[in-house]
Amino acid sequence: MARRGSYAKGVARRQEILESALDVIGRRGYQNASLKQIAEVVGVTPAALLHYFGSKEELFTEVLRTRDEHDLMAPHPADPTDAKAAFVDVIRHNTEVPGIVELFSRLAVDAVDPEHPAHQYFLDRSERLRESIADAFDRDDRRQAVMDPATMARVIQAVSDGLQIQWMIDPAVDMPGIIAALLDVLYPPKSTD
To answer: Are 117 and 55 in contact (CB under 8 A)?
Structure first.
């Protein structure tokens, strides 16, 4: 019985660490979020963080999963015409958490290595995101894609990821506006003629 309670405490502590790390990275940025700073916020040692996650890369991968649970993988909008607005809202939200965007972009590059702890996360996330995009826009009877849904979803994802890098270099880049314009081109309203 004690083991079960101990396990529950460990799960709760792990989640507390993830939430704190998400907050620290979101506020201070990826470059300024050391294991020591995250540990201080939670009230543990850096060694304790590694006990729960194994490495900084694994911790940061789990931080991105936690962010996805909060922001990106929300249920589809009830009204399919909200698909564009929902996606643009996610992009707009990203402008409010530059540290998380930087973490995502840096880990995405590192995760090209199949041995990196984030490799499978990015493969799985990309597949789910593309399926979600294709499905959401496919349900919109008022619009018609100019290409097959899988290709369209991949183009939207590629532009979105690329815009994040441009935005990190130049915060004047209007990510939500550019994505909205792209979606209008890739998924224009059906003609009523």
So the answer is: yes
